[in-house]
Specification:
The chain is α+β, with helices and mostly antiparallel strands. It has 3 helices and 8 strands; from the N terminus they run βαβββαβαβββ. Strands 1, 2, 3, 4, 5, 6, 7 and 8 form an 8-stranded mixed beta sheet that branches. The longest helix is centred in the N-terminal third of the chain and has 18 residues. The relative contact order is 0.15.
């Protein structure tokens, strides 16, 4: 089941589960020692989108509002035992729906550029390395 909400709407158990899943994927699985709790989750307008399987949160992303009004998708994660289930595509479709006509950007891990392109995103800049992983900036241009 897909859900979304802003921080004040999330109960503590849901927020904890989202943050734990992000930590499991980014810090443990991908071995990136970085501060996931970067303060951006607390910004007004930040929206969380997550998918549950029963009581378990199995996928999530966050949608940020940049200072210039552009929306930014980030922290896209799917639990290892739920990959290839369509959850990431479902998250992205919900983010696109919520964005409406607003400009929407993301920084893809570069091996996923083709996957994001299939959702209507195009490369907008050069690759760069963040936390030891090559990323590519992208923008939604439509299908």
């Amino acid at each position: 089941m897909i859900n979304s909400g802003q921080l004040p709407e999330l109960d503590v158990v849901t927020l904890y589960a989202i943050l734990r899943l992000r930590s499991e994927i980014f810090v443990v699985e991908q071995e990136c020692a970085f501060l996931d709790l970067d303060g951006r989750d607390l910004e007004p307008g930040t929206r969380f989108i997550w998918i549950t399987d029963g009581a378990e949160i199995v996928a999530s992303l966050r949608l940020l509002v940049e200072p210039n009004g552009v929306l930014r998708i980030g922290r896209v994660v799917v639990a290892a035992n739920h990959r290839r289930s369509g959850h990431a595509r479902e998250l992205m479709r919900e983010a696109l729906r919520l964005a409406g006509d607003q400009e929407l950007v993301l920084d893809s891990q570069s091996y996923l550029v083709g996957w994001y392109a299939g959702l209507g995103f195009a490369i907008t800049g050069s690759n760069y390395i963040e936390d030891g992983i090559v990323h590519t900036p992208m923008k939604f241009v439509g299908l």
